[in-house]
Amino acid sequence: MKGAELARRRKFDYEILRDMRCPSFDFEAYRTGGDLERRANRVTDAQAGSAGRYRLKLRIPTLIGPGKWAQETIIGVNVDVADYPRAEPATWVISHPVPWSPHFRAGSPVCIGEEFWQAREGHVTLGHLVVHIARMLNWDEKGRGGGYVGWNAKAIEYHQTHYGGRPLDSALVYPVLPSWLYGEPDDDQPFEIITHQRPR
Amino acid sequence: MTKKIRINLLHPTNSAEILSVAVSDTATPKFLIAEMIRAGFIPQPNHVGQYKLRNTRTGHQLLDDQALGAGGVTDNANLSVDHATTGASPEEAAR
Prior knowledge:
The complex is a heterodimer of chains A (200) and B (95). Chain A has a single domain, classed as Ubiquitin Conjugating Enzyme (Roll). Helices cover 22% and strands 18% of the residues of chain A. Chain A has 4 helices and 7 strands. In chain A, a hairpin with a 2-residue loop joins strand 3 (62-65) and strand 4. Chain A is globular and about 50 Å long. Chain B has 95 residues and is an alpha+beta fold. Chain B has a single domain, classed as Ubiquitin-like (UB roll), CATH 3.10.20. Chain B has 2 helices and 4 strands; from the N terminus they run ββαββα. Classes of the chains: A alpha+beta (200), B alpha+beta (95). The interface between A and B is medium-sized, with 31 and 31 residues. Strand 7 (191-197) of chain A pairs antiparallel with strand 2 (18-24) of chain B. Chain B: Residues 72-95 are annotated as: Disordered. Chain A: It comes from Sphaerisporangium corydalis.
């Protein structure tokens, strides 16, 4: 994918993120890595097709050590990688301290899992990535199998001991993908959530 | 005439996780699955998979585009959300 087609895909990603802004998520988009570092020349809605770098702000309370918390995490994303969107975007943690988790490490990509992006061969967006990272920050994801330790076996052990494998906050409201992504909403079709019972 | 019914949606990997919703009896499984993904109850299916709904009382799998009422789903029904993998190699299915 390149040229006009890639610009359309970039615009698509941008517009999904634009419509996901909420108390737990915000973002800034830039053309280049230099702009992102300086936080200069921010891409506007009208320039969405040129967005190559993102600064994702996730206001998801997460562990940064045993019993220590951060209220938000900043993640960098670079979609200007070869074969995007079939290949996953580059990701890294911008904020300090880095989440204390098997999926995050200073100076390394966020460990989003091959099954999350690569296996979908481009049928996944930055919006899905935001929700995925939000869940990882809240330790709310289906396990990657017994024995998985990622980059931080101690954090896994701590989480298992203190949370029994449960999310840090079971009532957390995640950023939501825009409804238009699934087609026009049908006003005649309500979907009212009455309760969400989670396993103890 | 449509009517609103309450249904209980059982998570595909842990049936103890249940989303109870009020929907129209004209809603289709396709619509419900899209809404469950949008609500973050279930993730996007992987590239070789798809979600299906099954009425736990009858054991019957519902058709994607058939209205719940027409499919025999009544108030307070329990619908299991199954993640079906089709056309995948054993390696892909194991992902």
